[in-house]
Amino acid sequence: MTSGDPVRRGGREAQRRRTRKAIVDAAARLSAGGATPSIDEIAAAADVSRRTIYMHFPSLDHLLIDATAGAINDPPVEQALADPALAGDAAARVDALIQTLLEYSPQSLPLGRRLIRLTVDMPVNDTQEPPTPRRTQRRVAWLERACEPLRDTVSEQSFQRLISALTVVVGWEAQIALRDVRGLDPQAEQETIRWAARVLVEAAIKEE
């Protein structure tokens, strides 16, 4: 088994995600009191080194924006995805996720714009292989949970392709494109995103 084996890469990626989440959660906890924590304080709370934090976040501002956005969205999203009435319906779960995110959009979208700018302005490491995500994969985790009922009905390849496609239409980037490029109002924006997500889920189901 080589170092490039998919199983090992998957394990490393899972560990990176756990470490990044621990850092973000620590930053959110420390920020809850209103004070701005330092990198050293966050590192101690997450039980990681300063170097580890900077491997995931290029600046304290980047980390704190990410943590604040998570603090806004995490509780209502967790509640929506835990609704037992939607347990077996992937399309309904994705729709509930979208409606929840858009409900909190007035608070989170300004943060999203700042976070996207910081991410785009990050220097590119051309030697990094394979490339690692530049943002917390919170959205991916939510989408995977929402689509969990499809795990036993579609292939793994189809499932992952669906998650990737939904990542394009669910989130700040889609909202920004629909508002800034298409000029849609919030109601039309919501209808478009919900329609696009539903079409993608239905297409994934029909392909099997």
Feature tags:
208 residues; 71% helix; 10 helices; mainly alpha; single chain; globular
Concise overview:
With 208 residues, the protein is mainly α. It has ten helices and no strands.
Question: How would you characterize this protein structure?
Answer:
There is one protein chain. By secondary structure, the protein is mainly α. The mean pLDDT is 87. The longest helix is centred in the N-terminal third of the chain and has 26 residues, at 6-31. It has helices at 6-31, 39-46, 50-56, 60-81, 90-103, 105-120, 138-146, 156-169, 172-181, 186-207. The radius of gyration is 18 Å and the shape is globular. Helix 6 crosses helix 9. It starts with 5 loop residues before the first helix and ends with a helix.
Topology:
Blueprint: H1 6-31, H2 39-46, H3 50-56, H4 60-81, H5 90-103, H6 105-120, H7 138-146, H8 156-169, H9 172-181, H10 186-207
Strand content: under 5%
* Biggest sheet architecture: none
CA radius of gyration is 18 Å
Mean pLDDT: 87
